[in-house]
Amino acid sequence: MPQVVTRSGLVLVASVAFVVAAVAQQPIPQPAPPPVVQPATVPAVQHTAPPVVAAEQVASAELTGLLGHVVLGAKDAELGRIVDLLVDGQGRVRAVVVDIGGFMGVGSRKVAVAWGALRFAAKDKGPEISIAIPSDRIKSWADYIADRPVAILGVPDSGQ
Predict the structure, then answer these.
(1) What is the pTM of this model?
(2) Of 8, 69, 129, 139, which residue has the fewest beta carbons closer than 10 angstroms?
(3) Domain boundaries in the chain?
(4) pLDDT tens across 17-59, in order?
């Protein structure tokens, strides 16, 4: 028997073909790619060259340490030895502490003498350090005691 194609059948076939063609033209949805994790950004470290610091080389014969150095008084008599340097808040040496008197550490005292009151003279074995203040004035001066107010002898313009 011949088959009769009716109009409604033809419309049905055309509709199905149209839907199939429309679906074929649409892209197939892909699953979403995993999120890309960016590495944490670290602030760039700027490498700067260290600052240039001035320096000099000095022969050891031109320098000497002062701690333990003998201090001479009137008539080049040994007055005592430097046992400390006292500096102010800006790093300027203001005074030296001289250990005077006594015998083998017994009966000795410490006094603060102004840096400006010291006299330096070049000698063969290093500088000779002397004080132009009379020794009796130095010996009668107030004791230096750490962490207490300091009486400095020989401050400029003080008349010693």
Answers:
(1) 0.60
(2) 8
(3) 66-153
(4) 555 555 556 666 667 777 777 666 666 677 788 888 888 888 7
